[in-house]
Each structure stands twice: as structure tokens, then as C-alpha cells.
Amino acid sequence: MIGSNLIKARTRGRSSARTPHGLSRPATMTWEPRDARGFSSTILPYEPTSQKETAVAIEVRNLSKRYGAFQAVKDVSFEVPAGQLVALLGPSGSGKSTILRMIAGLETADTGHVVLTGEDATRMPVQERGVGFVFQHYALFRHMTVRDNIAFGLKVRKLPKADIKARVDELLELVQLTGYSRRLPSQLSGGQRQRVALARALAPRPKVLLLDEPFGALDAKVRDELRAWLRKLHDEVHVTSLFVTHDQREAFEVSDQLVVLNEGRVQQAGSPQELYERPNSPFVASFLGQVNILPLGTIAPHDPPRDVTAGDPLLLAGAEAAADAQIYVRPHDMEIHRERNGRPAWRAVVTRVTPLGGAARLDLTIDDSHGIQLELPSDRLAGLNLHAGDAVFVVPRVANIFDPHSRTFQPVGGGTDAAL
Q1: At a CB cut-off of 8 Å and minimum separation 6, what does 80 contact?
Q2: C-alpha count within 13 angstroms, C-beta hemisphere, residue 18
Q3: What does the pLDDT look like over 48-83, one tens digit per residue?
Q4: pLDDT at position 317 over 70
Q5: Closest CA to 76 of 92, 67, 88
Q6: Rounded to two decimals, what is the model's pTM?
């Protein structure tokens, strides 16, 4: 997998870290308005900064879009490396689909540029962009067979009949629908229809493939199956793909990289694991999965105490943070013990134990005022023999300390140390 440095949310006035690939990766992202509305009022000619055609397939530069008084997209910039499957992830109304439609040419940007494989496509007609688009609701031709739906774009291009047949046969095998070529869309399941739609988008050999919540209309079991199938298909065909979803699990399972959006702006970009473990904002930390948020002052330090020079990570991070700093920790990044083991810990009381098959969820309270959740394997729960009302010690292995004044996160734990 190409490193997360290849997807870059633009930064201004911040230092950058060098990556193993020799490119710079922004450490913290900010956005600066350029006029009263927050974006430039004109589209300037696109001037490429370097020859990146072979490395970057999609480049979005300072893209903005307004619908009346509503600002849907606000100065968005990111890059998609050639051959990768990247997810635009965010809640409803964050601008994901609008960005995708502007890349495809189905919407016109107010400002900014769309560059496809090194060529400025901002004002290019849809049919000349070389983009394949897969919609949430299939958009198949109901009166056409599976074969004719897949062949439609090739016929429009007036390719030789023999070439069309060969390409459709190839795609039918690729999407595992060889025996369904004469069926109408009404004779297919939802998952099969979406595979036909994907084959139709791939038929003209597009430069990039855009997918707008392609599994949104399917039930949970079919979604799970198609996620695994799409990832396998992408690994076979290697077409650069940009995938819109609001489902965190879907994004994590399918994509190489994530671009997280909220309120029309890029919040953070990088690999799924990097963003999950090292979020750069409270929004990203909370949106990418359940997280416990507690005042830093509620956790007891090492016992016996360590000073900063001895390397106590909590003291070191806390010394740099404000007095009202918070500690963010995921439910599965904590341990639970009957006795204090000397590491930083919360003294807590079990309020509920919920078995979840091979795992269990524990609800606990700290200082009678802060609730947290913890997950652990069922065999570990059985060994502890925990019940509601039991007093325990909760130890974070990995955490992030958030300073609300500097708006920065300081990761602690992990790395070469198994715990704090």
C-alpha cells in the first residue's frame, strides 16, 4: 500500500514530516478563508506543480460549491494515488456526494480545480473525462438485458461488435454473472444489479471509477458480501477508485486511504489505521469509532510515582497540556484488573456486563460521575468473574490527550511499549 502521505489535505503555515517515500505529510490541518465567504471568487488557470500523472490519478484543488445560501463544499483539496481505492467518509450533509459529482462533471464547481491523470478536467465535458460512475440505485436500463446494459457505453462509442462482445464476456466473468447475461434487471437481486452497474462503469476502461454509496440500498448481509467482493475486484483490476460512504466499517474494510469530511471541509486524510489511532480532532476521534472521553485529572498516575524525566508518558503529555485537557481512549485499548498494578489507572465500579459472543462489553463509572465502556474477550471476563457492583482498576494501553486550547492531540502509549 502506498503510504498515506500521497493523500494530502492542504496545510498552510504548518511544518511537515518527511515520509519514507520522500514526500511531505502535513502534521496538522487548517483552513484560512480568502474572502468573506471563505473562498476565492474566481477560478484561476490551473498550473501543475510537478509531473504527477503516474503517481496521482485524481487531484482536487480548493474545490468549493454553494447552493443558494448553503455552502456545501468549502475549499476542499486532496489527492488520490493511481491504483488505490480511497473512501470519502463523513456524515450526511458533509459534501461527499457533491465532491464526487463535481469530479465526474455532473455538478459545476464554483471555484477550484479537478485534475484527472494530470489533465485539468474542471471545464471538461462529462463524456471526455474518462470517468466511470456507479450510483447507489443502480440506474440500469430496465428494458435491456444484463449484456446490453454492460455493452451500452461501448455501443455509444461505436466500437466493433467483436470487441464489444469480447469486453462484455470478460466483464461478465469478472463480476461473476456469466450465466445471467440474458436476464433483465427485474430478474436480479439487489447485489447482482449493483455488480451489473459496476461492470457497465468498467466497460469503457475509465481512467478513474467513482462510486456514490453503491451499497446503500442493500441489506446488511448483502452489503457485507459485496464489500469483500469489491475489495477483491479492485485488487484484480487496479483501477483508481473514489468511494463515497458514511459507514465507517465499510470504509475501513474496503479502502486503502480515507478522506474524512465534515461540514464541507476535509478534517483529516490518511490510512484507516492511522486515522483511527492518531486522530487530529475530537470530530475524527468520535466519528471513526466509539471512544471514551474523560478529564485527564481523573486518572491516577504511576504508583509509585515517576517524574517527567523518568519518562512517565502521562505526566509528560499532561505537563504540555492545559489543566482542562481530556484523555481519549477506545474501549478495546484498556485493561481491567482487580488489583492496582502500578500503571496509570482509573478506580471504577462495574455497572453492567453485556456478553457479545466471543467478547463482552463492560459499563463502568468513575468517581460516580463519569461513565466509560470497555471491551474484552469472553475468556478474560470469565477469568475475572466480574459482576455489577465490583470495584476494579481500568488501565489504558493506548490513548490520546486532547488540549482544548491548542486544539491538538498528544498520543501516549503504543509503539514499543505495550502500555502506558
Answers
A1: 7, 56, 57, 58, 59, 86, 208, 240, 242, 257
A2: 2
A3: 444 445 588 999 999 999 999 999 999 999 999 999
A4: no
A5: 88
A6: 0.79
